[in-house]
Write a structure and sequence with these properties.
Layout (H helix, E strand, L loop, with lengths): L10 E2 L5 E5 L17 E2 L9 E3 L3 E6 L5 E8 L3 E6 L5 H8 L4 E4 L3 E4 L9 E9 L2 E15 L12 E7 L9 E6 L3
Antiparallel strand pairs: 1-10, 2-3, 2-10, 4-7, 5-6, 7-12, 8-9, 10-11, 11-12, 11-13
Length: 184
Amino acid sequence: MADTKNVTTSKPKIGGAVYRAPVGTTLPTDATTDLNEAFVCLGYISEDGLTNANSPDGDKIKAWGGDTVYTYQKEKDDTFQFKLLEALNPDVLKTVYGDDNVTGTVQAGLTVKANSSAAEDKAWVVELILNGVLKRVVVPKAKITEMDDIVYADEEALGYDITITATPDTDGNTHYEYIKEKTA
């Protein structure tokens, strides 16, 4: 039976919703356990939120005469797209440019090296609130595979609009979702 209580919007967890850590870091297996201290918060993301594309791409085989006689799945990419807004956060810059390409602090002087180093796989966690229900998306292994142009403008927040692509873990899963009603 339909129930309007199951209809929801999503909000980020207060204090930041997107986290990353080295692959191999102990991952959460529920919606409420504290994250391992290796996860760093990447701060605010844009009002567009998080977009997860997790759709199969298939093809079909047709018989002579035009009838479709077989369909099959060619691929099923699992991507997450979001715009990191804290352009002065060293952890955001390390996420975008690589841990080894960012040194220093904003106060003492920060150096960012842009080069052709390949993006590294990381573990990712996104924490959401759905009308009082906690949701945690855990991506065991993903790397940045796309980044939109960086726009420097008067009336637009400087940020890094990135897409990460998940790869299967040892169980063949690209991400996990944990949902639990929030308790007082």
